[in-house]
Write a structure and sequence with these properties.
This protein is mostly helical. The protein has 2 helices and no strands. The chain has one domain.
Length: about 80
């Protein structure tokens, strides 16, 4: 049995929040109101983040999947 069974749901919620933040970031970049950062640099940053995020997800899953023993009840 997993020690933290709801952690994957929390990670999924975190992904949704990060996607919303990324959307707001790109909207502001296209509007030209975020630190004067050119669109292509912002795009390169997000592509790099998208390339690294599966590895980060695998590492987080590997580190957080801890199993505990289920108490065994014999009849």
């Amino acid at each position: 049995m997993l020690k933290w069974p709801y952690f994957h749901a929390v990670l999924g919620l975190l992904v949704i929040v990060l996607l919303l933040i990324t959307f707001v970031f790109f909207y502001n970049v296209l509007d030209g109101s975020i630190f004067g950062l050119p669109f292509f640099w912002a795009l390169a940053l997000c592509v790099a983040l998208a390339a690294v995020s599966p590895l980060l997800g695998c590492a987080l899953t590997r580190l957080t999947n801890r199993y505990v023993q289920i108490p065994r009840v014999e009849p």
